[in-house]
Amino acid sequence: MDLKHNCSVKLNDGKLMPVLGFGTYAPDRIQKSKVNEATKIAIDVGFRHIDAAYFYQNEEEVGQALRDKMADGTVKREDLFYTTKIWATFLRPEMVRQCLERSLKKLGLDYVDLCIIHVPVAMKPGEELVPKDDSGKIIFDLVDICDTWEALEKCKDLGLTKSIGVSNFNHKQLELILNKPGLKYKPTCNQVECHPYINQSKLLEFCKSKDIVLVAYSALGSHRDPKWTSSDSPYLLEEPILKTIAKKHNRTPGQVALRYQLQRGVVALAKSFNEKRIKENFEVFDFELTQEDMKAIDGLNRNFRYINFLFAVDHPYYPLLEEY
């Protein structure tokens, strides 16, 4: 893959996905207006792949940024690749389209480029994002992910989304869909936590064998929202080996972590609300890691996750008990 600016990968449905994406998840402490601002900066810098979700509760702000950038002539709608996700409380087949249509309404767009199932773990439907009982336990729902997938296929047929995929699925859950009788469309991608501390090499190999693109979130390991991540987690960008490689190439550890993914055929999502870092994160197309660099970074793998979804460990579809 020749990694030039705006380089894209071809999905199994023929659509193109830019190999570098801008992530828009923001912890509660970040003002929603910052998300709007950062998205506009990202587009100005060159990002064309914007990764968002119903669950992030900021699609109005992201959508406004996209519309502003289309209005001022920076981009046309067809230049952008926008991803949203069906949240856990909408996994019943009759609710999938409703979730997507809510996102479209907030965005002010007619369609998204990619719509994915956010997690395989269903929660009780309703307006609460994370429904809990009186004792504070999450209330789950049992939905066959193949039924959810069929509903997503219908959304594609309706033109509400160009492509469809999944997120946080293990290889067995992907196989459930791939082997589903009457499958109309294969998942184009599986978006999972992936960085040098958990490089997902087995899942990557599996996905490549099925023509499914692996998309890496937390690619910079910088996801430190206390709701999801314990405060004593290691700082990936402080990793001495990444720092040494970065110094050699006159780059930042973050740029090295992103470049690592691109060279192994993974689409990387980079999230930042800092203008300097947003720019830096896009400057990964004009240098190349050597085979030794790649091997050294492979050697950092320790199957460490910043996000374990431990709240869902009792759900039959909890994805992380499998090795990959």
From TrEMBL:
<dbReference type="Pfam" id="PF00248">
    <property type="entry name" value="Aldo_ket_red"/>
</dbReference>
<dbReference type="InterPro" id="IPR020471">
    <property type="entry name" value="AKR"/>
</dbReference>
<comment type="similarity">
    <text>Belongs to the aldo/keto reductase family.</text>
</comment>
<dbReference type="InterPro" id="IPR018170">
    <property type="entry name" value="Aldo/ket_reductase_CS"/>
</dbReference>
<dbReference type="InterPro" id="IPR036812">
    <property type="entry name" value="NAD(P)_OxRdtase_dom_sf"/>
</dbReference>
<keyword id="KW-0560">Oxidoreductase</keyword>
<protein>
    <submittedName>
        <fullName>Prostaglandin F synthase 1-like</fullName>
    </submittedName>
</protein>
<feature type="domain" description="NADP-dependent oxidoreductase">
    <location>
        <begin position="20"/>
        <end position="301"/>
    </location>
</feature>
<dbReference type="InterPro" id="IPR023210">
    <property type="entry name" value="NADP_OxRdtase_dom"/>
</dbReference>
<keyword id="KW-0521">NADP</keyword>
<dbReference type="InterPro" id="IPR044482">
    <property type="entry name" value="AKR1C"/>
</dbReference>
